[in-house]
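FAQ

Q: What does a record look like?
A: Structure on top, sequence underneath. For example:
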């Protein structure tokens, strides 16, 4: 689920008001403000700074007052691998599928064709239902759910709000109308997957 990645930023800018701090402290704070809780395309969601590897420079340009550094550092990144089983909470359902939240990341989508078969969308309840033999297994919201990772997508940033409206969940559209720069696709189509309550003895 997590991995350590090495990054380089050739222009970490320390403002004049922070130059009185120890260099490592000032640079650490700036790196954290720039990268923590941000998605790096084709890499993943940065969770925390692991270590500063090297610092070079400290150039102050005329008329500016800030110091500029080249910094190599390592970060802990959330990027689940295909086939990984994780648990979360079922937050929303619509005709296209299910939306799952794992606390620090909420852009996990289970499309309808990757649910337990057969599953149908109940228009009255606005919930998905697994038709298991003679029973109706409702996928109630706010319930713990176990999912299997199928892939990760890094959609391109939409140029306009109208372009975002026309997108699907796997293209970065979220239920609240914002853009998701990283979307995790998952399935629940196997024994032990889906609502955790289904599989309790």
């Amino acid at each position: 689920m997590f991995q350590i990645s090495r990054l380089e930023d050739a222009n970490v800018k320390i403002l004049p008001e922070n130059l009185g701090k120890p260099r490592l402290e000032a640079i650490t704070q700036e790196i954290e403000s720039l990268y923590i809780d941000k998605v790096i395309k084709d890499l993943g969601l940065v969770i925390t700074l692991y270590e500063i590897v090297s610092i070079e420079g400290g150039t102050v340009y005329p008329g500016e007052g800030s110091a500029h550094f080249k910094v190599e550092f390592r970060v802990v990144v959330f990027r689940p691998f295909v086939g990984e089983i994780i648990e979360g909470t079922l937050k929303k359902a619509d005709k296209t599928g299910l939306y799952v939240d794992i606390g620090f990341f909420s852009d996990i989508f289970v499309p309808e064709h990757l649910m337990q078969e057969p599953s149908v969308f109940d228009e009255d309840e606005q919930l998905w239902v697994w038709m298991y033999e003679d029973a109706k297994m409702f996928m109630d919201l706010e319930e713990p759910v176990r999912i299997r990772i199928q892939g990760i997508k890094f959609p391109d940033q939409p140029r306009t709000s109208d372009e975002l409206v026309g997108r699907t969940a796997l293209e970065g559209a979220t239920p609240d109308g914002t853009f998701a720069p990283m979307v995790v696709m998952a399935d629940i189509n196997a024994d032990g997957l889906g609502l955790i309550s289904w599989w309790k003895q």
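Q: Is there anything notable about this one?
A: The longest strand covers residues 44-60.
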